[in-house]
Amino acid sequence: MKTKILDSIGNKSFGKDRPHFEIGDTVEVHCRIKEGEKERIQIFTGTVIARKGRGINEMFTVRRIANNEGVERIFPLNSPNIVDIKPIRSGKTRRAKLYYLRDRVGKAVKLSHRHSKHTSAK
Predict the structure, then answer these.
(1) In what order do the strands lie in the sheet with 38-52?
(2) What is the pLDDT of residues 60-79, one digit of tens each?
(3) Are strands 26-35 and 82-89 parallel, antiparallel or unpaired?
């Protein structure tokens, strides 16, 4: 009963304008950062290595390499601090969680590109 009520509230209010992206996709996450009274938008670009939860509670993890150090951020999908999510590139994966990328460095981190079926050949 409790889940049905939460799902009905979540379906009405959240997630309508979010683009479709999957695990392995490279995305740009535009975050709203508040510093004192000032507000700015910061872009975090990386590979989606995990998604968990559902409905209002859905979260996704984005990983990138910055200054030869791996950086991961976990974002709530329906957070008001996320201004925009832009899928850049889709990667071909066979797993739901890409935690094995944590051990890889350099070109080994790159995933092969997934080609869309809906592209027209000229």
Answers:
(1) 69-76, 59-66, 38-52, 26-35, 82-89
(2) 999 999 998 999 999 999 88
(3) antiparallel
Query: pLDDT tens digits, residue range 5-34?
Result: 767 766 665 656 788 999 999 999 999 999
The verdict on residue 111 lying in a domain is no
What is the domain range of residue 91? 14-103
**How many domains does the chain contain in total?**
1
Task: Find the CATH number of the domain harbouring 94.
Answer: 2.30.30.790
